[in-house]
Each structure stands twice: as structure tokens, then as C-alpha cells.
Amino acid sequence: MSASELAAAVTRALDVDPEEFHTNAREEAEQLKTEVRSGTFDNTEAIVGMELELYAVDDQTDALRRVPRQLLELIGFEKELGLHNAEMQTSPQPLNSHGLAAQRNELKASLMPAQQRLGTEGIRLVSDGMWTVPPNGETAESYLCDAVSEDGIRIGTNMSDAVRYHTMANTDYPSAFELDAPHVSLQAKTVMPEALITSIQPHYQIPHAPDLPEYFSYALRVAAPLLALGVNAPFFPPDLYDDAPAEEILEDAHMEHRIGVFESVLNPPEDDPTPPKVCFPPDFDTVEDAIDDIVADDTIVPMDVQSGTRFDDAFVHLRHKHGSYWRWVRPVFEGQTRSAANARIEFRPLPAQPTVDDAIAFEALFAGLMESLPRLEHPIQSLDWETAKENFYAATREGLRADIEWITADGATTTSTDELYGELFEHAREGLEQRGLSAEEAHEYIRPLRERVDRRLTPARWKHDSVRRRIEEHVPLPEAIWGMQSTYIRRQKATLLDGSFVDWFE
Predict the structure, then answer these.
(1) For residue 275, what pLDDT band results from cuts at 50, 70 and 90?
(2) pLDDT digits (tens, 9 = 90+) for 63-85
(3) What Å distances lie between residue 289 and 39, 69, 285, 370, CA to CA?
(4) Which own/partner contact pairs does 244-250 have at CB distance under 8 Å and 24+ positions apart?
(5) pLDDT at residue 506 tops 80
(6) How high is the mean pLDDT of the chain?
(7) Residue 343 is inside which H or E element, if any?
(8) Going by CATH, does the domain composed of 3-505 fall within 3.40.50.720?
(9) Which entry of 248, 270, 273, 335 is 20 to 30 Å from 364 by CA?
(10) Residue 384, CA atoms < 13 Å, CB-side half-sphere
């Protein structure tokens, strides 16, 4: 799509009557509530799925690479925000031994030929929380901030041609478009700085849709310990740092800057009264409350959406609203057909992981907990919401070193890392066995994450230790970060499909 065509499409999107759009969404929400209560969105069993985001690098220099759109389509991946991004989604599968194996095999079956085809162009896909090496001959700041004006419409130069991304930079919604992190400050004119980060998103479909609030409350309370296990983004591209000593940057680094990037780029500035869209969500008393929360959320781009042949096109305006309902854990109601209609929880805090098996380990851990905790009526559900939120942001800063408050099965409150994760892994194993996995299978899925706790070593801590060692050897910070990144990519190349992060330190 040319710049003029893209600008024209953005202009058409901006001409949509927001009041009419919101009226349609509210009416669809009432219809959705009726369908949910009538059993349309129930499943006979729990279903799992996964989204995996990656970024592309030059296979020789590790520098960020733009992926030609035709090439992206050829390898069967979807475009994301940046021209360097690629995304894939697994097919939903029943939560059992065959379903989890199918999830793992589908990821590997798609990634192997994709890497081979891209390799002929000197490109490699990387699974990581944040890239740190900008394209050859460019700075990270210029790559993230370059924009042009076409017919009065602001267009990000390095963003994909999805109309909604560009429309977001031209609406009245007051997104800050900035990076706000320790020793990092950047002001852009589009949402492009959000393209620094990549994630995995496990999905869990609720067997009985009206029970979603109960499952959701447990998902909020395990968000912190799972995030603390998965942290993988302690460093920015070096040219984004302010002029500060390397030791201070190391000392003040968060173990998971992805959370702060998403929030500071897309939310309004702190002094703006508009409610944030990227946030830790509330508990819901009923499934209707969850639907109403989506309806009440600000719509950045109320586009002219048309109904098609999907079953959930009956809720097409509500589905469009949901696309910018950016909660760290969020409810989803959709289905291409009536028989496939489902209510699910998307678990969104996790950064992309070093290997496929690490990503699947998180999917199994989250799903196992969603099976066991509600069934056991585990007392962690009684953890105060404010405490759950504080736990979550502590995990972004400190990873496994965070003092996460947990309530054990016998009702005791603890901040012991070993006690928390010992119980968490045990309940996840029980949940997986409840779905037919053998004890050995359940253990093997969770083992890579248990090893992280035993060794107190996450991908972010591995990166931080690597950069610290280089700094202590008097290597300048940029070279220290890039050296760490080169080692990360090299080790991932050997283990992405046939190994786990545990192999990096054995």
C-alpha cells in the first residue's frame, strides 16, 4: 500500500461516527450476554492456544532487519506493528497430552521452514523480549521515530501498513507515544516505540463461560509469579539511554521493561485524566461485568467494520473494541462458528522466551493452574486485588528476587520464593494430571521453569549478569549489551527448536 493510499484509508477511518459505533457495540454486548448465558460459549472441555511474536535480525550482524511483506506471507506468518515483526498463532487444542504435544509440534513445524526460507535472505527470526541492536546504519531512535506526513496524516515509516496502527497516531485519544524508564526517555509521534517488544500469549478457554470471573480472579493472582519466572527484557538499545554511568543503568534496570514500554507508549500521560488502557485489570463479579468493561473501554479507532460470515460477526463492533482493550490479562469472547464460540482468558504479561519448549512450559503451567486452583477453591483467590497488583509490578522490577506475597493452600501468607513456587508447580502438575497427563509428562513440561527457580536464574538475570561481567572488564555499555545479545542469539540458534533455556547454563 502506497503512502497516499494508506493516508486515504486512515482518513476514511477517522470519518467514522464514534457515537454510532459505540451504540452498535452496546447493542451487540447485550446480545452477547444472552448468548453467553444460554450456553453458546461453553466448551465440553478446556482448550488451550498460544500466540508467539518474534523479530527479525541480520544473520551475520544481529542487527534488526525489516522482513519483506511478500516473504512474510510466503512463510505463513502474520505481520505485527513493526516491519521487523512476525507473529504466529497455534490452532486451539484440548488440554491433554496430545493437545499440548500438538501445540509444541505446530510451533516447531512452522518455525523450522520459516527459518530455512528466511535464511536464504540472510534473515533470522529471534524469540526475545526486546531487541537491542538497531538496523545497520541506523539508530534505534531514528528507526522508532521516523514518520512522514501525507495529506495531513502522520504515517510511521517503519510500521506495517495495517490501517489501525497508523490511525492511532492521528486520533484525539491522548496516547503519550513515549518511553519512560530508568535512564531512558524518548518522545515519538506514533505508536512505533511499542515495536521494541515481543511476547508470548497463552490462551485458556473456559469450559462454562459464566464461570469466567472465577478463573479470571485466579489468573490475576498468578500473574506476578509467572511474570517473575519469565522476565526477559532488562535492556534497551544502547542509544536510547541518557548520559548516565553504566553502573547506574545496571543498578536501576528492571528485569522486565516490556511492561513499562507498552504502558508508557499507549497510555495517556500521567497528568491526563483519561483512564489508562494498558493496565492490570479489575476483578469481575459476573461475566456480564467483564463484557461491560470491554464496552466501557475507550475506543481509539472506531472504524467502519462490516459483518461477514463468521458467527461472531454478530458482535463485530464489540470485537473491534476488544482489539484495543489492552489489559495484561483479558477476557475474550469469539468464534468463527456457533459451535466454535468460546470464552477464554488471554494471559498477556509474558515476554517472548528463549526457546519453544520454554514457551510451551508457560502454556502448560498457566493451563494447569487454571484447572487446579478453581477446583481446589484455593485461598489465593482471597488475596487483596491491590496486593496482586503490587506483586505484579514488583515482578517487573525484580523478577525472581521480588517479594511476592502468596497465600498457601493452608491459608498462610508467605513471601518465600521456594514455598510459593513449590506450591505453584505442584498445583499445576495436579491440574495437568487431572486432564490426563501422566505425572512424568506433567513434570517434563514444567521442568524448565522449576530449574529457573532452583538456580534463581531467569533469561533477564542471565542477560543482566552477562552485561555486568563485561562492564566489570571495562567494556563500554553499548558493546556489553550487543555482546550479550550476540551470545543470546547464538545460543538460541542451537536450542530454539530442540532445547530449553536450561541448556544455556548446564
Answers:
(1) very high
(2) 999 999 889 888 889 888 899 99
(3) 17, 40, 7, 20
(4) 244/183, 246/471, 246/476, 246/477, 246/480, 247/471, 248/183, 249/182, 249/183, 249/477, 250/464, 250/467, 250/468, 250/471
(5) no
(6) 95
(7) strand 342-347
(8) no
(9) 335
(10) 5
